């Protein structure tokens, strides 16, 4: 379902939040670090550079992403596994658990937080970033096309939006004995290229939609969506302005 080339098309816009997340993680010399939903592993390798003494495990449920991650050169201590982040069990308790732009694919964040905290060593840090852009025109338009009679029978009611509010993350994690630093940032991306918002969505949101539709219906879906997006997001000489909100949580076990 995932396409590493399409996903990395907007690499700079997609990796900036990871660095902003990581800048708030204060851990000196962890030995066990994991990156859940690691994709092509570029950011997993950044974790290994930051903590050279650590075993850093990148986990992703997409075979294509993990194969690509393994193909690229990695520092010592990095390994990649195919696995579901909801069920994956580390070989030893983790001192740092990072997840960038992946947890929103897993439903029921109340239960998920419990499962993630259970993987942590004492004083460990859980740090994640999730998109919170579900009310944006881009998502509304994807939903509008999903509901067209041609596509609705195959696509159903649509994906639940499992991202919680900052207050809810704080209270869920505080209830699990964590001290929480949480914030939200809205980026104004100026996306390069033609049909830039469509290209952005083809890297993420549209993956399951197109996988469910198959090649021919998928093309028809994109033909319906493209003009709607062009109208909602006019391109300028400087790029296509695209507002994108993300939520960040850094939680430490204990006080
Ligand atoms: C938007 S990409 C983010 C990749 C990487 N963290 C980054 O920031 O470049 C989301 C990744 O989450 C993975 N993913 C989605 N659901 C998952 C699950 N249940 N378990 C593990 N990985 C999952 C996808 O395969 C994809 O590689």
TrEMBL record:
It holds the Pfam family Methyltransf_25. The keyword Transferase applies. GO terms for biological process: methylation. SUPFAM superfamilies: S-adenosyl-L-methionine-dependent methyltransferases (SSF53335). Keywords: Methyltransferase, Transferase. Residues 33-122 form the Methyltransferase domain. One of its GO terms (molecular function) is trans-aconitate 2-methyltransferase activity. CDD domains: AdoMet_MTases. This is Trans-aconitate methyltransferase. It comes from Myxococcus stipitatus (strain DSM 14675 / JCM 12634 / Mx s8). The lineage of its organism: Bacteria, Pseudomonadati, Myxococcota, Myxococcia, Myxococcales.
């Amino acid at each position: 379902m995932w396409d590493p080339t399409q996903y990395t098309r907007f690499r700079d816009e997609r990796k900036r939040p990871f660095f902003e997340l990581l800048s708030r993680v204060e851990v000196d010399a962890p030995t066990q670090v994991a990156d859940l939903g690691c994709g092509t592993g570029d950011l997993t390798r950044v974790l290994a550079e930051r903590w050279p003494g650590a075993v850093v495990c990148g986990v992703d449920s997409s075979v294509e992403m993990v194969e690509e991650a393994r193909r690229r050169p990695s520092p010592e201590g990095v390994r990649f596994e195919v696995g579901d982040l909801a069920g994956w069990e580390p070989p030893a308790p983790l001192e740092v658990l990072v997840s960038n732009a992946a947890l929103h694919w897993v439903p029921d964040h109340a239960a998920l937080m419990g499962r993630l905290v259970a993987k942590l060593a004492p004083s460990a840090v859980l740090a994640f970033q999730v998109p919170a852009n579900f009310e944006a025109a881009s998502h509304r338009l994807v939903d509008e096309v999903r509901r067209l009679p041609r596509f609705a029978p195959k696509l159903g009611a649509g994906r639940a939006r499992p991202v919680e509010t900052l207050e809810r993350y704080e209270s869920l994690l505080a209830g699990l004995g964590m001290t929480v630093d949480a914030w939200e940032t809205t980026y104004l991306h100026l996306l390069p290229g033609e049909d830039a918002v469509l290209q952005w969505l083809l890297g993420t949101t549209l993956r399951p939609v197109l996988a469910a539709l198959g090649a021919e219906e998928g093309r028809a879906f994109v033909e319906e969506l493209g003009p709607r997006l062009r109208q909602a997001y006019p391109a300028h000489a400087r790029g296509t302005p695209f507002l994108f909100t993300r939520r960040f949580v850094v939680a430490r076990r204990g006080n």
